[in-house]
Every structure is written in C-alpha cells, then in structure tokens.
Write a sequence for this structure.
C-alpha cells in the first residue's frame, strides 16, 4: 500500500492524467448510455390466443382452453399458467422463470402448439403466440385526424403508410393502431325474398364470392408466346354489386332482387377519443435497451415531415410522449447532485476556511461520479433514476475519507514542502482504517446486487453506482490526494484553536454520561423505541403519488354494450373533463384490436370498459387534480344521464400502477382466489367465502371474472330437422351469415381495397326467419325448435389448470387477520398477489444476514477481535431514532427507498464508532488510562466526525427537497434522519462503552496495562 501511495505521490502528472482520462470516459459513456426512468423490468411472458367463433365461454373452456393448458404445462421453464375463456376466444398466459429469454420461451411454446393443434376441434384457429412484456406502456401516442370528408382516410394513412415508416425508426419495437373507421360494402340480404327464390344465405354468399373474383385459368400459347389466362370477375365499383346478374339453378337472378348494397363503416373493435373527437391513434412501443430520448426526437422529426407531406389531408400530432417526464426527472436528479456538491463544498469551507483544501476534498465527488458512470457502462446498465439516484446519494459518502486524509496532512504542519516518502508515510498510517471504513459502508450494498428476480434488477443499479462511487472516492483520497497535496503545496496548517474550544465543550457535556451511563443508555433505548414506533405508523407504499403522470377514470358499461354507444358517451365525458382547469389533456380508449393480445389476456379486461386518461397541468399537483376529478365525476355521470347504462361498478378514479410496483407484486389491494375442479364447484366455494366475509362485515372490493351476458339459445327439434332434411349446422351457418356476415369479395377504389360483406337484415325477428329445405320448401325457424334467452358467464378464468374466481379486498389490519383465518381454514382459498418480498423472503433475509456477517468479518479482521465488531454494530439501531421523524418531517412514506436507506445505515452508523475507537486505542498505546484516552480521543475526532456527517447530510438535502424525488427522496430522508440520530447518540453512548471495553481488555492483555485511571 505504501509503495503504491509513494508511486502516485512522486508522479502528480500521472495522477492528473488518470483522473482526466476517467472523466473523459465518463463524459463519453454519459452521452451514449440510454436514459430510462427505471432499469429494464420485464416479466418473461408468452400469450397464446385461440379463436373458436360462435362458441360460448363455457364451451371454449372445455374444448380449447383445458386441452391447450395440458399441453403447455410441460413446456420447460413455465412457472404458472393463467387463462381466460370468453365467447369465441381463449387466451392463455405463460409466465416463465425470471431471466428467461422471451424469444426462446416463445419458440418452445410454438413447438407445443404444433403438437396440440391437430387435437383441437374443427374450426378452431391455430393458436397465435405473442411474446413480450404484458405491462409495457406506449412510448409515444400519435393521433391522426382527417381533414377531408372521408373518415376512413385516417385509418388507411395510419395502417398502410405511417405504421411501416415508424417501424423503420431505430429503437421502435412494435406499432399498434387503435380506433379509426374502415369502409366496407355492406350487402344486406332480404332473407324472405332470397329464401323464396330457393337460396340459403350461405349458398348466395358462395355464388357471389365465386362470381366476383379473378380465377387463374392456366396458360395458353399464341405462337411462340405463352400467355397466362385469368377469368376476371372482380367488380370495379361498389355500385356494380347492386345490380349484378348471378347464375341460378333454372334462371338468372339479379342481386338487386334479394338485397341492397351500401358503403358503410365496418364494426369497430376499438375506439380512441381525443379533443372531443373520435380519432385514429398509433401507439409506438420502445424496443428494450433503446434510448428513449433519442427515440422521441426521431419520432418528432418523422411527425414533422409527415405533417408537411399530408398537410392537406390529415393532422398528425403527438398527444403523449414518455421522454419529457423522463428528462424532467433525470434533470431534477442531476440538479440535486450539483446542489449536493455545492453543499459539501460549503460545509468544508465553513469548517476549514481554506479554498484549496476544500477544493481537493470536493474533487473526490466528480471523480467518484465519473468512475461510477464508467462502471455502469462496463456492466451494461442504463442511466436511470435508480443508478443516477445511487450516484447522487453517494455524493456525501465519498468525501469522508478525503476529509480525514486532508485533516491528517494538514495537522502535520509542514514548514516546507515534504518529500513524497514522508507524505506516503503519513497517508499509509490511515490506510487500514480508511479501507475498513469504506468496506463497512460498501459491503451493505454488495449483496443487494445479488438479490433474486426483479429485486436485483431494480435495486442492483443503485447498489452498483453507490459501491463504484464509494470505492472510487476511497481510491482518490488514498492515492491521488497525497499527490495533489504535494503538487499544490502551501503550508496548509489548520487553526486548532477553534477545534480545541469545540472539543472542550464536548468534554463538558460528555462527563455526566460517564457518571450515569445506565441512565443515558436507557434514554437512548427509549428514543430508539420512539423512532421505531414512528416508522411503523408510516403508510406503507411502493411509490409516491407524486411520481404519477396521469389519472385514469374507468367507466364500465353493461355487458353487450356496443362500442359505438360507448363512443358517444366517451366523447361527452371527455369534453366535460377537458373543461376542468386542472387538466391539460384528456383522451380515452375502449376495446382492443386483434393484435392487442396481451391486453385482452388480462382477467379484468372488458370490452365494455372506457378508460379516460387525464393529464394534469404541470402547475397542478397530482393529488389536487385527483381530488377534483373524483369530486366531479358523480355530477358528470348524472348530467349525461348514463347511469342506467353503467355496470354495477359504475366508475372508478385511480392512479396507474408503477411498472416496478407491478413486477414486485406490490398492490394497494389483497387479491385472493377460490379454486375448484369445475366452474360449479368454484361458484359454490366462492359463495361460502363471500357469506363468511359478509358475516364479518367485509365487503370485497372486486370479484372477477364476473358478470352475465344474455345469449339467445336455439334448441332444435331433432325429429323435425330430420324430417325436412335440415341439419343444425346448416341453421347455425345461415344465422351466422345473417347476424355477423361474411366477407365474400373485395374491390379496389383509388388503390385502396374495400371488403364486401354479405349479411341479413337484422330487423326480422329470429322466429320469422325462413329456412330453405332440400326439397325447396321454406319453413320458419320458430317451427324448427324453441328459442330462449339465457344468462351465461361473461368470462371464465383458470389458474395453474384449476378453475378460479378472484376476490380483491382493501388491506386493513383487522381485515387481514380475518381473511388469513379463512385462508388457513380452507385449502382452496389462497392469496395470489404474493409480492417478491414475500416470495423471496428467505433469500432477502439471507442477503441481510450476509451483509451483517461481512461487516462483522471486515471489522473483526481489522481489529483482531471477536467482541469489538459486536459493540460497534450495536450502533446500527441508533439510526432508527431518526428515520421515523425524518420520514414524518419530509412527508415520505415507508417505501422501498426508505428500506434501502435503512440498510445503508448499517455501514454508515458504525463509521463514527470506528473513528472513536481507533483514536482511543492509539492514545491508550501511548500510555493514557482508558477514561482519559477515550475523552481526549473523542474530543480530537469530534471535528472530522461533525464534518463528515454534515457533508453527507447536506448532500442528501437537495434530493429530499426535490419535488420529483420519488424513491430517492424517501431513501435520502431515511439516511438523513438515521445518520443525524446515529451520530448524536453515538457521540455520547459509545465513549462510556469503550471505557468498559478497554478495562475488560486490561485483564487479559498485559501489554495494555496502565496505571489506574485518573481524571484530567
């Protein structure tokens, strides 16, 4: 160690060049590392969708979902299976072990699909496999508003032109289209007329399709030239289909005789509303690892070019962009870091009053930050709020060793410039204690890097940044400060008069503690207990509401409500909400397109749910805007007279869940599930649970999947059908064409394809629909069987291959004990929202235990003692006395940041004890008795302890006062309060404990034997 210090001390230019090189590398890394709000968090999930048109949810469950689940359960790496069966579709979600590559997982699932698909019923579509993050939010939302009379132009422009160009932008993952109108030729059949002419709807659709398509007819030769032959039947205009002659059995028929065709809007699957108008929207998702700021800039440039190109036909604009909020958050952290550096410099100057000493000490901060950024780049991390927060939190920690080193060199009072060997001798004298202090601070964060699952991904960046900056600060202090001290030498002697006066006052207040140590220790325990109580009563959350960027209003309509009806209400609601002065922008969406598999796979997804996103004005606090919306929703709903159309849940106003909160399984509700062998047993068991909850006056917040959907069931008379030669499948096929329609042909107008859909006139009662028999007779459908309206389940859920019903409840201590009692009473009633803290609780306990063991071993190895590390680690609880009051004072919740700040105190709290012990032991070896050694040593080290504590606290203060501090704010508040309390208590409690310890050592270590203690 001494040789390495001497090497740098004798080569100051080399030290400066190394520092400059690391700084340049950090600047390059900072310019090229992608920014993000959080580290990459993505559940390796694969979603499989299978469609079975015309089947009820119960039939889909038994015929498609269960066989598919059996096949997918054997896929390697699957941790749990969740499925939802709805009318006509089955969606299965497979969650894989954390760290599994989603693309590799999807390849394994596709192999399983190839095995199971042949065994599924006829008519089932081949399962569609979609890998990806189910909780990903769009990076940018773009709206396309047509300026011409053709409303379908916006969808065509978005789908055929803008989508393809957006996908070519570097960093774009997927691009989805929401809402919009699509034109189609709608041929409505006159069913009675068609049946009278001897045609079934399916027959007419087949003839129409064959007669209006281009059919290859081989090839022909014209001399030496070979020509392709095509029988052309494609129509040129929509109007041509309205008067088309079709071949019949005995004669020809005209399409105008059996129906009429019009250009109409196709049935909508989703809607998007902005500025009180239904528009076409484009959701752009970011590819993992892409730089969000650069991506937003490229998209903005593309939109500017697109507006110039299509300015006469459409208005294209961005209504939501992820990057500005990210830049604002990152800028706030960077400003906080800058203010922290200034605060550290101010504190140093306040105590030292020497600019050069302050400069040399403060120089450790930018150097450690630069080294931390380089380490983040080498480890493949991103510059996110967690990693930047770690660098900002480390500002106050890295200067501690620098202050102690400069104080040591300044106390030497060199009259002339010393030689490198003398400087290195001085610097090496504290090498052991400096590395020990650094290790005890950093060793707490090292195990955090190895936390399992999403915990390690989320908090690993903070730990890497902190550990890298702390060790870089130690390296700078231990090797570069001696070199720079010589390079800028000027008799840096300290004025010790104030220090002596300061120490005497400290002795005056410390002496009563030696007289009654038990009383003071008991007082410290009482204060710590009060601090623990204040910690316990703090609200437990994961993120602060200040982090939210939008407020969601969810309005649920009755099952079966059409998207078109929801659109009308959505326009009215958004217009009223937009008038609220607290809101900057309001947009809404409902439904889902075919490509939005992950959205429809959610158990609580409802096509009839309208989600309104309210973006508050940047001058308004999110909680104020939230209260304003919630207070006005009743009036808004009643004013628009839509209460009768709403579902029982009516509406709800809430803040969106943070992505990290979702991945960590943290929620403001307790979610339980009731499982069973089939849906009947599940309903019976859920009834038992609900009855017991009601007996305890517990009202569930939500039960899902729930709700009934009215269906019209046709029960055919088999004997009648057999007599007339009609099959039930023929009836179903005809009814499907009448109700849903089929795409029978398409035409091209102005280069754009338009589908032609054939369907029946829905105004005709179902009982009066004529059915053609093979003998040419027409019989009304009502004569072929009975027709009833029945209530069927809206959706059916399964979890790990068992039918389930989920029950959500608001968390409450009394409620939780009652529900846990039911959990222990019934094996089929269990909790499903297990957080990763609970899931990995044993690993977390082992990590904390490992951190404490490493800290113990570090100090034990340094001091060659088994008992002393235990004494020093007893100072850790002292920090609890200040954490609770600090969280209360700065209005912070007990969240993950506060818990991480508490863990950081493991290392910080023992540092003061290390300093006090070392100086006391040093003076005992000089011949002082224990009491005198501890008293004088404590007074000598009071100044550096106060300086290091104040520099750390002042560096944390800008982060605490940052309005958008988030997790870092609570972490800094916990460290601030804990460090202040730990320092104050340690300065008065540890000295009498050290006196007792040294007296105990005298009995066994004769080398330390000294005369009887005398008071000085």
């Amino acid at each position: 160690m001494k040789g390495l210090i001497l090497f740098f001390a004798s080569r100051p230019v080399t030290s400066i060049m190394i520092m400059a090189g690391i700084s340049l590398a950090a600047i390059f890394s900072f310019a090229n590392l992608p920014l993000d709000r959080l580290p990459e968090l993505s559940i390796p999930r694969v979603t499989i969708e299978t469609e079975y048109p015309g089947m009820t949810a119960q039939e889909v469950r038994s015929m498609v979902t269960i066989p598919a689940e059996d096949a997918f359960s054997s896929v390697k790496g699957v941790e749990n299976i969740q499925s939802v069966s709805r009318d006509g579709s089955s969606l299965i979600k497979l969650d894989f072990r954390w760290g599994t590559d989603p693309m590799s997982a999807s390849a394994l699932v596709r192999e399983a699909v190839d095995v199971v698909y042949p065994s599924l019923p006829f008519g089932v579509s081949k399962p569609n496999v979609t890998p990806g993050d189910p909780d990903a939010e769009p990076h940018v939302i773009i709206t396309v508003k047509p300026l011409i009379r053709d409303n379908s132009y916006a969808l065509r422009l978005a789908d055929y032109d803008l989508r393809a160009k957006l996908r070519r932008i570097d960093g774009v993952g997927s691009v989805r289209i929401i809402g919009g109108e699509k034109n189609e030729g709608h041929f409505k059949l006159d069913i009675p007329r068609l049946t009278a002419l001897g045609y079934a709807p399916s027959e007419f659709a087949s003839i129409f399709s064959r007669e209006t398509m281009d059919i290859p007819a081989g090839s022909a030769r014209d001399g030496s030239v070979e020509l392709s032959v095509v029988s052309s039947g494609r129509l040129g205009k929509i109007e041509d289909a309205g008067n088309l002659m079709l071949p019949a059995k005995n004669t020809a028929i005209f399409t105008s005789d059996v129906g009429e065709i019009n250009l109409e809007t196709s049935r909508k699957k989703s809607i998007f509303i902005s500025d009180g108008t239904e528009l076409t929207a484009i959701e752009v998702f970011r590819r993992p690892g892409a730089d969000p700021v650069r991506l937003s800039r490229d998209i903005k440039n593309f939109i500017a070019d697109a507006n110039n190109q299509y300015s006469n036909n459409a208005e294209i604009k961005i209504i939501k962009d992820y990057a500005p909020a990210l830049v604002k958050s990152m800028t706030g952290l960077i400003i906080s870091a800058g203010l922290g550096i200034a605060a550290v410099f101010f504190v140093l100057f306040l105590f030292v009053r020497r600019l050069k000493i302050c400069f040399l000490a403060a120089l450790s901060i930018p150097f450690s930050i630069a080294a931390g950024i380089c380490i983040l780049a080498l480890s493949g991390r991103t510059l996110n709020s967690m990693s930047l927060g770690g660098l900002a939190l480390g500002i106050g920690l890295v200067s501690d060793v620098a202050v102690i080193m400069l104080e040591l060199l300044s106390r030497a009072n060199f009259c002339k410039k010393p030689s490198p060997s003398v400087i290195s001798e001085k610097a090496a004298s504290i090498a052991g204690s400096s590395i020990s202090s650094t290790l005890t601070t950093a060793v707490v964060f090292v195990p955090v890097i190895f936390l399992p699952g999403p915990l390690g991904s989320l908090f690993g960046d903070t730990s890497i940044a902190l550990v890298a900056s702390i060790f870089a600060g130690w390296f700078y202090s231990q090797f570069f400060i001696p070199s720079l001290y010589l390079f800028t030498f000027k008799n840096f002697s300290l004025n010790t008069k104030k220090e002596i006066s300061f120490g005497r006052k400290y002795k005056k207040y410390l002496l009563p503690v030696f007289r009654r140590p038990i009383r003071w220790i008991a007082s410290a325990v009482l204060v710590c207990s009060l601090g623990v109580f204040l910690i316990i009563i703090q609200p437990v959350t994961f993120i602060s509401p200040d982090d939210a960027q939008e407020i969601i209003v969810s309005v649920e309509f009755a099952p079966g409500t059409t998207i078109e009806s929801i659109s009308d209400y959505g326009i009215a609601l958004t217009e009223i909400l937009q008038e609220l002065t607290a809101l900057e922008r309001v947009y809404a969406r409902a439904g889902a397109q075919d490509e939005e598999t992950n959205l429809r796979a959610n158990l609580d997804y409802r096509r009839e749910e309208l989600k309104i996103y309210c973006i508050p004005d940047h001058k308004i606090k999110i909680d104020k805007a939230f209260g304003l919306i919630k207070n006005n929703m009743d009036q808004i709903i009643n004013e628009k007279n839509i209460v009768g159309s709403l579902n029982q849940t009516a509406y709800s106003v809430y803040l969106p869940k943070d992505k990290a909160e979702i991945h960590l399984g943290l929620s403001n509700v307790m979610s339980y599930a009731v499982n069973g062998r089939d849906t009947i047993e599940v309903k019976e068991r859920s009834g038992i649970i609900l009855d017991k909850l009601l007996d305890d006056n517990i009202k569930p917040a939500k039960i899902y999947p729930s709700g009934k959907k009215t269906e019209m069931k046709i029960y055919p008379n088999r004997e009648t059908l057999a007599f007339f030669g009609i099959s039930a499948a023929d009836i179903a096929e005809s009814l499907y064409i009448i109700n849903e329609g089929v795409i029978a042909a398409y035409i091209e107008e102005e280069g754009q394809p338009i589908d032609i859909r054939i369907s029946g006139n829905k105004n005709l009662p179902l009982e009066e629909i004529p059915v053609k028999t093979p003998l040419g007779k027409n019989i009304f459908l009502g004569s072929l069987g009975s027709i009833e309206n029945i209530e069927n389940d809206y959706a059916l859920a399964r979890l790990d291959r068992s039918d389930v019903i989920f029950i959500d409840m608001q968390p409450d201590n009394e409620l939780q004990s009652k529900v846990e009692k039911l959990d222990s009473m019934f094996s089929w009633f269990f909790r499903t929202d297990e957080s990763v803290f609970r899931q990995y609780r044993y690993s977390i306990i082992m990590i904390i235990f490992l951190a404490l063991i490493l800290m113990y071993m570090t100090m034990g190895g340094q001091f060659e003692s088994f008992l002393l590390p235990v004494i020093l680690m007893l100072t850790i609880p002292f920090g609890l006395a200040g954490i609770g009051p600090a969280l209360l004072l700065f209005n912070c919740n007990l969240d993950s940041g506060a818990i991480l700040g508490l863990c950081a105190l493991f290392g910080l709290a023992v540092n003061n004890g290390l300093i006090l012990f070392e100086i006391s032991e040093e003076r005992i070896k000089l011949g002082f008795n224990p009491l005198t050694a501890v008293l004088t040593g404590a007074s000598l080290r009071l100044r550096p302890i106060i300086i290091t504590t104040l520099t750390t606290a002042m560096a944390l203060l800008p982060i605490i006062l940052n309005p958008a501090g988030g997790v870092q704010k609570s972490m800094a508040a916990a460290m601030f309060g804990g460090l202040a309390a730990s320092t104050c208590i340690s300065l008065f409690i540890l000295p009498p404990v050290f006196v007792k310890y040294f007296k105990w050592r005298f009995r066994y270590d004769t080398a330390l034997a000294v005369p009887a203690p005398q008071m000085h």
